[in-house]
Structures are given as C-alpha cells and as structure tokens.
Design brief:
This protein has a single domain (15-134), classed as Serine Threonine Protein Phosphatase 5, Tetratricopeptide repeat (Alpha Horseshoe), CATH 1.25.40. The chain is built from 7 helices and no strands. Helices cover 57% and strands 0% of the residues. α2 (35-47) runs antiparallel to α3 and α5 (91-103) packs across α7.
Amino acid sequence: MHSLRNTQTEPLPKISTKTPKKFLACISTRFCLIPYAQTLLGFAYYLGRGVPKDYVEARKWFLKAAQQGDADAQWILGTIYAEGKGVPKNYIQAYKWLNLSAAQGREDSIKELREIESKMTPGQVAEAQALSTKWKPKKGK
C-alpha cells in the first residue's frame, strides 16, 4: 500500500518555525473553506510540518476537504482509514473514500482500492460501494 510517508516529496507550501501562527490563522478565515487549503493543513498536521504531528487533527482537515469532493483528500482519508492512523482501521470507510477518489481518476486510489478490496468480505465491499453511491459533496465547512 502506498504510504503517506511518500508525500513528503510532493509539493507543500514552505512552512518554517515562524509560519504556524500565520498558517493556522486561516482556520478562522474564508481561506480554510477552500478544499485545497484544508488538504494542505491536513498534510501539515500529518507530517508535522510547522505544527506538531497530529493524526487526529490531520484527519479532521482531510475530512473537511474530502466531504467537498477533493480527490486528493479523499485518497489520503482512505489511506488513513486503511492504515489506522489516528482512527481505528476501517476498510469500509477506506474503500468508500478511495472509491470516490478513484472515480475522479486518482491513480493511487485505484491501486489502493484493489488492495483494500482483497482484504474485505463481499458484504463489506457491498456496504462500502453503497456508501460511495449515496455520498454527495457538501459545501464548504
């Protein structure tokens, strides 16, 4: 399975020890209603860049972006549930988020979806597919 450790090579905004207050200030602004900003904030917490590493806080921000339809956040959230980082392992939730991301063409999601599916019962796959089908994006929160 692709691990989020590899995302350290993906571009993130430059965050220094002087950045956190400015970066975290976006929590109270409209900027943090933008899924991309929410995903970046999730990465900051997940990787401990400029803020303390905190998987629970990372999941919170990835979830906000994923619920608005951000494919990258959906992929990351699926991976978080598959690996049990800050949440109990949950292959049904992992499948749901990876499936939604894969439907938008995110190739990592497609590969991980196949791997997760091999660990699930047919009933779990059916339940996860039903959750994916019923899912509707939410407006900025």
